Amino acid sequence: MITPQFIWLIFLLPVFSFIIISFFVRPFVKAESRITGYILITALFTVLALSIWTLLSVMAAPHHEIPVPDINWVVIEGGVTIHLGLIADSLTAVMLIVVTLVSLMVQIYSQGYMHGDPGYHRYFAWMSLFTASMLGLVLADNLLFLFVFWELVGLCSYLLIGFWFHKPEAADAAKKAFIVTRLGDFGFLAGILLLYLNTSTFDIHELHKLAITGALASAILTWSAIGIFAGAVGKSAQFPLHIWLPDAMEGPTPVSALIHAATMVAAGVFLVARMFPLFEHSTEALTTVAVIGGVTAIFAASMGLVMNDIKRVLAYSTVSQLGYMMLGLGVGGVAIGIFHLFNHAFFKALLFLGAGSINHATGTFDMRLMGGLRRVMPWTYATFVIASLSIAGIWPLSGFWSKDEIVVSTASQPVLFSLAMITVFMTSFYMFRAVFITFGGDYRGGSQNEHGGHGSRPHESPKVMVTPMVVLAILAVVSGLWNVTGHFGTFMGHGQTHSFTYGFFHPFTQPLPWISLILAGLGILLAYAMYSKQWLSPEKTGNFFKPLYTLFYRKYWFDELYENIIVRVALVKGLFGSLKQFDNQVVDGAINGVARGTIAGGRAVRRAQTGQLQLYGLFIGIGILALVLVLYFAG
Amino acid sequence: MNLALFIPELTLAVFALLVILLDLFTEQKRLLVQVSVSGLVISAGVTLAMWGESFPAIFNNMLAVDNFALFFKLLLLGVAFLVILASISYTQKFARFQGEYYALVLLSTLGMMLMAATTDLIAIYIALELTSLSLYALVGFLKDSKSTESSLKYLLLGAIASVVLLYGMALIFGFTGQTQLGEIARVIQAMSPQTILSFPALTLGLVMLITGFGFKIAAVPFQMWVPDVYEGAPTPITAYLSVASKAAGFALILRVFFSAFGLPEWLSLNWGIIFAFLAVIGMTLGNIAAIPQTNIKRMLGYSSIAQAGYLLVGMAAMGFSPVVDILGRSSIIFFLTSYALTNMGAFIAIIAISNKLDSDLIDDYTGIGKRAPLVALALTLCLVSLIGMPPAAGFMAKFYIFSAAVRSNLLWLVIIAVINSVISAYYYLRVVNVMWLGKAASEEKISSPGTLRLGLVLSCLGVLLLGIIPGFAMLLAEFAARIFVF
Amino acid sequence: MIANYGYIGLFLIAVILFTLLMVTIPIALRFLRIVPDNPNPVKNSIFECGMETIGKTWVQFNFHYYFYVLIFLALDVLVIFLYPWAVSLRQLGISGLITILILITIIFVGYIYAWRKKVLEWK
Predict the structure, then answer these.
(1) Tens-place pLDDT, residues A124-160
(2) Contact between B231 and B146 (Cβ < 8 Å)
(3) DSSP state of A266
(4) Which of A15, A620, A625, A633 to mutate against chain B (most B CBs within 10 Å)?
(5) Is-contact A434 A310, C-beta < 8 A?
């Protein structure tokens, strides 16, 4: 059984790593040194061991929860007391494994990918801070601290997207991500405050209890749940706040793998799961989650069909899969949504690392400039294909198991069901489109301009980058087997268990898995036909569906909509215009008046400060006299 | 008498003499730094070993060896360490007298440590003089006209203040017939209020004590020396003055007013009112006068006057409910710790920047954010802490002090203090604004020596730690303040 | 309370009156011609043990005297402390001996300092 001190250590080790790197290594050690990476990797290795220990202990614990005593953060005797505490339940334990495992793999990979970058130390400092905040986010036991960590991961995401801040696209993308997610966070904050005003507690356990016993009025429950969900929509890039994630791909690729695929964007899903009792008791809120999730899934997948930048394909795929998870939460429950999160983290991180590896070799992310990499990058190719099969939902890879559960649980709702099914087809098509364009055919030249271009001949990446990919590939194959027996479901609190062989072959006795498998197979076949064998010309197909193609390629004109209508017209002209008027007329007037007054006061005081000693001495005398008078009149 | 309890002070004295001797016989001035630092470390080590236990007072009840004193000794030693770190690159300006410089820093630290421990009026005076005489010399170390002028001013005004203090002590001695603080308290508590009130000697003595101490902590209206001296003194010494001198002064005030005049309550109410009055004019005058300043050292001088005002809010809170309120005492200790780290950080950053720019003018800090991003970041953090915004230590410090004041029914005082905090944001943020948004005159990067960086890192780390996990430090502060429970 | 200060007030008034009186007596005597008025140079000179003053009072003297005075002062203080210690040496015992040795060491360091800084050399 793990003790609470060790659970604290899970959070504190990355914090120490951040402190050591940013305060002691960065100011004093040369940028060429690789020590920072090793510091973080060592910390994460320990944290991973502790996380596994936590998971095993939580599995063994009654009710799948280890009690962790609170620590008093701010205590004023007889006044305010703010507690600082951790949750160690099944949800946290699973999230800990996801975060530490993926983070560890990504950091090892980064040792190779970021080697020689002038911002090497800065990179690992932010990565430490991110990992620490993410772990804090999944461990937090009250909404206030959860929100603090929520904002911190957002901040790290901002800093890491804009890591190469000298590139204007990166800086713009960072700003966009920050602002768009902030919109959702307003909702989140409002939800928290609404809950606090009605229950006067931030504690998640107590809120659960209140929701389950029905002590909260249903309107408040619904509105606060929707507020919290708004935060999740922003962070998990759900429709209509999805626009920031594809642009966030301007950051270094390992960052995309860790933050914008596996962990931070999944925090929205985690948040909904964490507050699930609130959603469960409000049909409206739960339906909202399911519908937004379903719509996002197909909506993002459709845009992924036509992108030429491999990271953007993956980004839309992430948005779509996150939609899937939300859908799973909305229709199925915590276990189903989180199980997909769990599996998705591994194969999607792997896909991004693969994209990074390709970029390392070719110097570009544009798939049209790649091709033929199958032969020169066998490891990258093999792992990328495994991940693609997994995300497409091919039996018996991990993606199949979680996706199947989501599809099955939507069966009673025809609209959502058909959305899910179409998405299955689209997913396998765009993934294998990427596979065939990138790895099939002949090499089309690459580019020398961007990060990592190494000359004309592409080559396999160094071992330090390939090893994490192989580890993740193994996980992408096996991680789904956890719930074959139904154990993941019972661990999360519902469902029942059965034998492994029964669970392993059971899907073939049902119609639904067959349908989704066939759809996925069709998607792969279509991609093969269009991009490998060229039986169908992509251009002609594109022209045939010209309006649709343009619609997808232009991302439904969402960016333009936000940019032109909302930002330019509504905000800049309307709101800011009137604010400016108000500022000029009223605020400035008041401020200037006050400022003038204070500055005049300051001048007067300064005039007394003449530098003349006699006067200063005199002031001491006057002071004594004044004190005596004060005492005489007030004492 | 147990001399072993006096080892921290003795160590410092021995090392100060050692530094002077070494300076005479060696050309390697680095050695002086190493010797001084090792003196500080040994002294701190011994002090740390004594922490937590209770010892009897030594030298016939003249020096207390309690946790309160130990806490302040550690704080002062830490500050002295940072000051020495900050001085290493600065002392090149006066290469001739390095031995004297470090020895005087050690001696004044010794004096301040004694100030935190004394429980006797005579010992208080000696400790104060030891501190002050060392500081007078240190202030004039640059030997240019400004530095010399400020040193002389400090000396003369300090002499006036110490005369007033002595006069106050004489009155109190005359009134009670005792010099030991505990004995004074016993005599006062044995008297009836009528007897005390019919003689103005005690209250007049109190006012004079406050004047003498108020000079040390830069309380308005005894602050006139501050801007001139801060501007003229070598920058590390300015930092030292603004932090250590103030901390020791407050330690003294806390001890004297608590152990001698804490009871009866109507008496503490009387000095509570004086402190409230001093707090209001201190905060207001300090903040308003800081606004038009163009020299950053001078600005921080006025800022430190304002900070003393916030600290006096805590003193007032203490005076208004001396028996029940431990928060007031511990919040002052917490504030002093946080202020020490913050101001040290700010001054080290200023040394790092000004050394290269050769200017203390705020306008010359334009665009420093681009030329020295790390230093500018650290300075920004410290200024944010001085304003009192989270997540820096200053926020928690003000939070504690203000809640103590609210609990002593001093809401009006807190409101004035909060308004003052808002005003202060104006001049602190102006520096931040200039550093990050201004256009630099040159693109040349400013590099800083490793010692300054180390000092900066340590203080910023402290500021963040106190700001993010204040509970631990607050626990220590409460532990230190526990000796004052009646 | 005021009554207590009344005596001090009376005393103050008496002091002032007495001072004024002492100043007015010679003037009054001169005015009344009781004292004869026949000045000569010796009578008008400042009382100086009979010696004539030479030059101005604001003369400059060598700064080195100042150092000597300081060192002398330090040694003087040492002697002041040594006398009572020597008288009661037996009662104070070994701790008294150590204490005085510490004091001597400190003064001695100061002496070495002055010596190395070439204060004792006259240039």
Answers:
(1) 888 899 999 999 999 888 888 888 899 888 888 888 8
(2) yes
(3) G
(4) A620
(5) yes
B337 contacts A86 by C-beta, under 8 angstroms: no
Report CA-CA distances (Å) from B1 to A81, A605, B53: 44, 51, 17
Measured CA angle at A122 (ends B89, B350), to 5 deg: 30
Q: Residue C90 burial (CB < 10 Å; 0-12/13-18/19+)?
A: exposed
Q: Using CB atoms within 10 A of its CB, is residue A24 exposed (0-12), middle (13-18) or buried (19+)?
A: middle
As a whole number of angstroms, the distance between CA A215 and CA A203 comes to 15
Dihedral angle at the C-alpha atoms of A505, A508, A510, A514, nearest 10 degrees?
140
User: How many Cβ atoms sit within 10 Å of the Cβ of residue B56?
Assistant: 11
> What residues contact residue A439 under an 8 Å CB cut-off, 6+ apart?
A370, A371, A372, A373, A374, A377, A381, A384, A385
- CA–CA gap between residue B394 and residue B335 (Å, rounded): 7
Measured between CB atoms, which of A24, A80, A603 is closest to B292? Answer: A603
Residue B263, phi then psi, degrees to nearest 5: -120, 155
Q: Where are the domains of chain C?
A: 2-116
Question: Residue B179 and residue B174: Cα distance in Å, rounded?
Answer: 10
Is the CB of residue B244 less than 8 Å from the CB of residue B168?
no
Question: A347 with A476: CB under 8 angstroms?
Answer: yes
Are the C-beta atoms of residues A345 and A262 closer than 8 Å to each other? yes
Flag if C1 and B198 touch (Cβ within 8 Å).
Answer: yes
Q: Please state the pTM of the whole predicted model.
A: 0.72
Taking only the tens place, the pLDDT of each residue in A337-393 is: 888 888 888 888 899 888 888 888 887 788 777 777 778 888 888 898 899 888 888
- Looking at residues B88-94, what average pLDDT do you find? 80
Residues 455-474 of B with CB under 8 A from C: none
Which residues of A are less than 8 Å from B153 in CB distance?
613, 616
3-state helix, strand, coil in chain C (%, to 5): 70, 0, 30
Higher pLDDT pick, A578 / A72: A72
Give me the total of CB pairs closer than 8 Å, taking one residue from chain B and one from chain C: 17
Buried b (16+ CB within 10 A) or exposed e, C50-70: eeeeeeeeeeeeeeeeeeeee
Q: Are A310 and A365 in contact (CB under 8 A)?
A: yes
Alpha carbon distance A91, A59 (integer Å)? 11
Fold for domain C2-116? Methane Monooxygenase Hydroxylase; Chain G, domain 1 (1.20.58)
ipTM here: 0.78
How are beta strands A71-75 and A88-89 bridged, if at all?
Answer: unpaired
At A154-188, the pLDDT tens digits run: 888 888 888 887 788 888 788 788 878 888 888 89
Average pLDDT, stretch C18-33? 89
Touching partners of C (3+ C-beta pairs < 8 Å):
B
